[in-house]
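Re: your question from the hallway

Yes, I did run it. Sequences:
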Amino acid sequence: MKRLSTFNVVSLTLGFAFLYLPMVILVVYSFNESKLVTVWAGFSTKWYGELMRNQAFLDAALVTLQVAVITSTLATILGTCAAYVLVRIHRFPGRTLFSGMIYAPLVMPDVILGLSLLLLFIGVGVDRGVLTIVLAHTTFAMCYVSVVVSSRLVAFDQSVEEAALDLGATPWETFRLVTLPIIAPAVISGWLLAFTLSLDDLVIASFAAGPSSTTLPMKIFSAVRLGVSPEINALSTIMIGLVTVGVISASLVSKRAAIQRAKEERAAERT
Amino acid sequence: MPQKVFAPWEDQDEKPLIRFRDVTKRFGDFTAIDQINLDIYAKEFFALLGPSGCGKTTLMRMLAGFETPTEGVIELAGQDIAPVPPNQRAVNMMFQSYALFPHLSVWENIAFGLKREKKDKGTIETRVSEMLKLTRLEKFARRKPHQISGGQRQRVALARSLAKAPKLLLLDEPLGALDRKLREETQFELMDIQEKTGTTFVIVTHDQEEAMTVASRVAVMDEGKLMQVATPDRIYEAPSSVYVADFIGDVNIIEGKAHQTGDRLQVDWAEGQPALSAKTTDDYSLGQTCYLAIRPEKVAISAERPTGANVLQGEVLDIAYLGNISTYHVKLPTGHVIKAQQANTRRIARRPFTWEDKVWISWSETAAVVLNQ
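Structure:
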């Protein structure tokens, strides 16, 4: 292996420091004894205990999880349907318009999306709450899902679907028994993407939420405006921990699967 | 007792299994298939042969139901198949890429079509084991497609498409992905399986040797048209056009003006050279342009002047040594280069002539095929 030069070491350190120093500070101070965020007064886990007793935060966390699970499921179903039609059906009236429009919310500023949804909800007369946040999140998350799923749909050999039809499967059976299992990894990553998008959205949720339905990012944001408390540091540390564990385990699983597959393919060619 | 020759296309009473009637297929401005009429009979091993882009795959995809003709009718056993969707046709296809279901085992791949017919479990199991046995895949039933080799995958694809016992099996370049040795073995295996199952096979290929080996009849296609439909030996020995003669195997083409007396044709082909003579049953008007097609193996090469109808002198320009045979490229004083083939019955050290030697080439009156296009 090539040795790292001084230049490489410096750029590596600077880059990673830029990315992770703020988070490291946050994690460190979550174990601070003192109530003052900027003064170190010894190690303690008491803020984690405090957090567990803070009903408002727990409620907000529950709402956020609820919204994220429902949103990502809905967005995955809708996004997969949209991707399937746009990739597989090459000609239907308005196809170009649809395929352009499916990506529009990706570049649309959140504020505009949130505002327009708010106007819609008021116009239709829906009470704002968990339902409206779910609808709002699904609106933009499904676009991301459809992008992820369509890249997989484009990549795989379409004759596999033709083969299923040829062997007597109906179009629905073909989708369920052949297409879906093949694109499953993309569908799952689409779901996870939608889940994280929904989990950390602040802007759109602020527009769509009602008084009884505060999500965690909204709760944190409003709490911080009254002053940063170590409780919030603790909460953020827990979230960072969860995300890290999730990402690392997912990449380990997929890497191991890829190695296993490569090994089996080599074995197959030898027989 | 002499065996009856399989030639349903010569029998007036025989009903074709597939009938293309004036079929045209256009993609936008591009005409992929141009007014094709074609009959294919039951139990035939029919090859569609042509360069890429000649429309052979489109023709096959129309049989499978993935494309519909723009004009004309395709009949399967007397029924127009246009309104029948692909999943309800008694036709199965083996794809060029094999198109195996990557998430299913070999066994499940083969059983896929049978399960769609809602057959009971016992029937499916029996049929799948039959197919596994036919394609010698018993050992691999539980493996996934990525756990077996290319040749085995090809056999899984074949077993899967045969499992439903289709009236017609379509094979799209089935051997394209295999190396040469495996391909040759598999060709004979395919013929064997075709004979055992009695299924009608239609194979698409751009490999003329493959078409000649496996097929009972070959259709040579070019730019959406059928150039000739005949048995492999007819295609080779009696091509109907310069295109077909040139596409199948190696050939010398000499252009000239016709001068006919009875069934003998004198062809003036070059200034100051004696006319070449050939036999034909067609009629040519005086001075009509015609082409002589002569296969290299029918051209004799010798150091001394032979006696016979068509004798020309030239110089050896090039020698392609292929082990069992050698092809000599002989340059005539007129600038024509004629290929002559000779079996290497002697050791190479005792070869009678080499580069730049003066040699005589000759062929008989019946060796050349006279073509008018």
